[in-house]
Write a structure and sequence with these properties.
mainly alpha, 151 residues
Length: 151
């Protein structure tokens, strides 16, 4: 029937999508891109490694819970959660596990950058993109975050 996946997707979007008044649910997160056939094919054929996404999300949730614990724990200013003489096992575990979260998160970010380099094929363009994004994050940290903390 169809020769390849690209032909099947183009046929689907030429026949089905113009007749439907809504955006397909799989494309909701990509609304900032124009709906050309090239972009739609690229989005649908994009290969995600869901285990990396899941692990990164789990690590972010654990880190967020630890930061909330710092703000809500009554004795957080005077008592260390890793002091075995004054802490509970649950509190100790929640703080201990976060020591693993930051290295895992950075490792997964590096793994994602490596996979992105390999998928795009243009190393200089990918390097320039990551450098630009990193510099913007540093600028935002020194301006917006510091302004919010010390205002």
């Amino acid at each position: 029937m169809f020769l390849d996946t690209k032909t099947a997707i183009l046929t689907y979007f030429n026949i089905i999508v113009p007749r439907t008044p809504h955006i397909p649910k799989s494309l909701i997160g990509f609304c900032h891109r124009p709906f050309t056939s090239h972009n739609i094919i690229r989005i649908i054929l994009m290969k995600r490694i869901y285990s990396i996404d899941f692990t990164r999300g789990l690590v972010m949730i654990i880190m967020a819970l630890d930061h909330i614990r710092d703000l809500l724990h009554v004795n957080s200013l005077t008592q260390s959660p890793t002091d075995l003489a004054t802490t509970t096992p649950l509190l100790f575990f929640t703080r201990w596990i976060t020591y693993l979260c930051a290295p895992i998160f950075v490792f997964l970010a590096g793994t994602s950058a490596y996979l992105s380099f390999n998928n795009k094929g243009d190393i200089s363009k990918s390097r320039k993109f990551l450098l630009n994004r990193g510099l913007w994050l540093v600028v935002l940290e020194f301006t917006l975050v510091n302004l919010g903390l010390f205002f």
